[in-house]
Design a protein that fits this description.
two-stranded antiparallel sheet
Length: about 110
């Protein structure tokens, strides 16, 4: 199989109808895993450099925490209204040229 920079793959990560509790469990755990990933990344940077710039990581952690709060509001709204939540979460993966910074720390969308 050949790969090029334009090669795009998609994964259907989440698809279906969920109760508010199920949605909270699935999406809450996903967001917490991303937060934990960045916390570990921050620790690894500190171990390597002791004074490395972690601002991009800190910003991303704060963004993810904000998203967790947004999720809680959505879940509570659905719960109060007696609704289930239809969730579709596709992941797009694209091949990119390798750089010296494999985690692309300059991109806060991780």
């Amino acid at each position: 199989m050949t790969h090029s920079v334009d090669t795009l793959r998609k994964l259907a990560l989440i698809k279906g109808s969920f109760t508010p509790t199920e949605a909270e469990q699935v999406l809450g755990k996903l967001l917490q895993e991303k937060i934990n990933f960045h916390k570990e990344e921050r620790l690894q940077n500190w171990i390597r450099e002791h004074n490395g710039n972690t601002q991009v990581i800190e910003t991303r952690i704060a963004e993810l925490r904000d998203e967790k709060q947004n999720l809680r509001r959505i879940i509570e709204e659905a719960r109060k209204a007696g609704f289930h939540l239809e969730i579709k979460g596709d992941i797009e993966i694209r091949f990119v040229e390798a750089t010296e910074n494999p985690l692309n720390l300059g991109d806060s969308s991780n």
